[in-house]
Amino acid sequence: MLRFEIVSSRTVEGEDKEKKFVAYMLQVRQDVSDSMAFDPDPANVERRYTDFLCLYNGLKKDFPALLNNVTFPRKILMGNFDPNLISTRCTAFESLLSLIANESRLRDSPASIAFFQEVELKEAKRLIDEGKFDQALSVLESSFKLLNKVYTDRSRVVLSVLCRIVACAGASGGALAGPVERWAQLALKRYEAVSDSDLLLIYVPLLHTCISIWDTLGKDKSKLIEELNGLRKRGMKVDSVPSLMEAVDNLIII
Question: Average pLDDT in the 202-215 region?
Answer without folding.
Answer: 96
